[in-house]
Task: inverse folding
């Protein structure tokens, strides 16, 4: 057993946590929408066709904002196909996922579902096969209260009040050659800036997200951000970044992959700030990490493309194991650590498709392993993040060099006199005792401690096994003055919650 030391000081704050960092993503892809959140006729569905068991788990997961309708799907989507009487909606082929889109679920269903789920909608406009007109039309449909064509159509469809959607993404992954309507950074940012200006002519208070890089390994990463921000800096608020991680056969390296996310976030901030300096701007661009997760992507890339156009096919329904859950908890630590700049983050996706929630026809929905670190972090990672200085034994891997075995972040909820420390032990072999000093606090008491780990890191929660992987709740931490001592088993995620006072 070797030991790590963590020092936190109440006076050294990073930032207020934007609740929207606990977002998710619902794309018209595979069975995320259909047979995921929407399954009319199912024994689990309500009168709107929304699966009640899925809705209950969405609430328990604690998501705050949901991005919709895609994803790669977005770039070929005509939003008008998804509104109006359901019996009159056209079926379309979806080029992104080679499936059949029935359009039975569309903007109004999504808004109604969001309201019932208690989440904020984050909409995206198609800048692949569509452009300025379509963006203005959907914005009029969702947000305008006027005697005008698209506002009246919304009313005619039974929705008198505008939805007032605040956050809009300007296209999706436009840097990716796989994207329908893929563009150069120059062409994309010219379009995105003009769409942003037009949308602001309808509502100047929108929050607009320009599409940054699809991942840090994109050959255009860096230059892409610089070009699009140069062009659109003053008319957008956030730049997006997307990232997915997988075990490429070296689980120890996989366990420390959040290092890549740390670099990615820092680099996007640095590029945005360089553009800010060049422009002598007072405005700081913030980040929307609006797709992130663990995803066994290379397995998907090797699959032959579907030859038939089927509605709601089983697509990338990854089954997550214990190692995936620990990594996901670590990625959330990275997100919170940069709560000064990351203002929105969407776990991609919500149900069935690389998702924390799974649902099958005729069976109650269940929680994947990754559900747990997300739900605990979303529920208790409230208030502000505090600087968390970590002195830890190291792990060395070829890809990431020497990095800390222990990673952690501390949140402080002053209104409720409590703090949550989220930690991971990324070593596959070593147990680490960890001493956490909380300077500037008094009367420390551990009120909850949950740990997620297993000797078998490949254990999963499936329809057959049930939820065999669960976090264990047991207080083993000890407190002495301002110090808390804990033990972190190999490959584990842990949350320690404390009640405390300001010293
Ligand atoms: O989330 C799955 C897909 O991953 C999205 O459609 C796309 O934006 C990304 O490449």
Result:
């Amino acid at each position: 057993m070797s030991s790590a030391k963590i020092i936190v000081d109440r006076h050294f704050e990073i930032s207020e946590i934007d609740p929207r960092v606990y977002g998710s993503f619902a794309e018209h892809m595979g069975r995320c929408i259909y047979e995921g959140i929407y399954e009319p006729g199912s024994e689990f569905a309500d009168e709107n066709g929304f699966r009640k068991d899925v809705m209950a788990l969405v609430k328990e997961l604690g998501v705050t904002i949901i991005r919709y309708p895609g994803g790669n799907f977005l770039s070929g989507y005509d939003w008008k196909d998804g509104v109006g009487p359901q019996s009159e909606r056209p079926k379309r082929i979806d080029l992104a996922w080679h499936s059949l889109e029935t359009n039975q679920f569309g903007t109004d269903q999504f808004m109604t579902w969001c309201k019932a789920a208690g989440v904020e909608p984050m909409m995206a406009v198609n800048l692949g096969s569509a452009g300025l007109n379509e963006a203005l039309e959907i914005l009029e449909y969702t947000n305008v209260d006027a005697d005008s064509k698209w506002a009246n159509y919304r009313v005619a469809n039974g929705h008198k009040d505008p939805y007032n959607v605040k956050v809009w993404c300007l296209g999706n992954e436009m840097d990716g050659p796989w994207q329908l309507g893929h563009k150069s950074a120059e062409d994309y940012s010219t379009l995105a800036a003009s769409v942003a200006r037009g949308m602001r002519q309808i509502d100047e208070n929108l929050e607009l997200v320009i599409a940054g890089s699809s991942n840090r390994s994109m050959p255009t990463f860096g230059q892409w951000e610089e070009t699009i921000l140069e062009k659109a800096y003053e008319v957008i608020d956030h730049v997006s970044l997307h990232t997915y991680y997988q075990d490429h056969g070296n689980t120890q390296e996989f366990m420390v992959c959040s290092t890549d996310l740390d670099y990615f976030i820092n680099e996007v901030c640095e590029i945005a700030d360089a553009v800010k300096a060049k422009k002598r701007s007072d405005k700081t661009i913030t980040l929307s990490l609006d797709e992130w997760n663990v995803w066994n992507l290379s397995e998907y890339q090797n699959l032959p493309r579907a030859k038939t156009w089927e509605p709601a096919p089983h697509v990338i329904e990854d089954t997550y194991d214990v190692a995936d859950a620990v990594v996901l908890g670590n990625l959330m630590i990275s997100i919170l650590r940069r709560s000064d700049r990351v203002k929105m983050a969407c776990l991609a996706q919500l149900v069935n498709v690389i998702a924390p929630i799974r649902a099958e026809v005729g069976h109650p929905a269940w929680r994947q392993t990754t559900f747990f670190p997300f739900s605990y972090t979303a529920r208790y990672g409230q208030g502000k993040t505090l600087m968390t200085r970590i002195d830890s034994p190291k792990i060395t891997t070829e890809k990431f060099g020497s990095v800390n075995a222990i990673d952690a972040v501390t949140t402080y909820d002053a209104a409720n006199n409590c703090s949550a420390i989220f930690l991971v032990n990324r070593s596959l072999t070593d147990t680490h005792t960890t001493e956490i000093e909380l300077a500037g606090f008094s009367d420390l008491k551990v009120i909850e401690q949950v740990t997620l780990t297993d000797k078998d890191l490949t254990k999963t929660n499936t329809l057959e096994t049930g939820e065999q992987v669960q976090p264990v709740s047991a207080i083993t931490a000890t407190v002495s003055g301002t110090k808390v001592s804990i033990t972190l088993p190999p490959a584990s995620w842990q949350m320690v919650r404390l009640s405390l006072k300001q010293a």
About this structure: The chain has two domains: 2-11+385-502, 21-328+340-360. The mean pLDDT is 97.
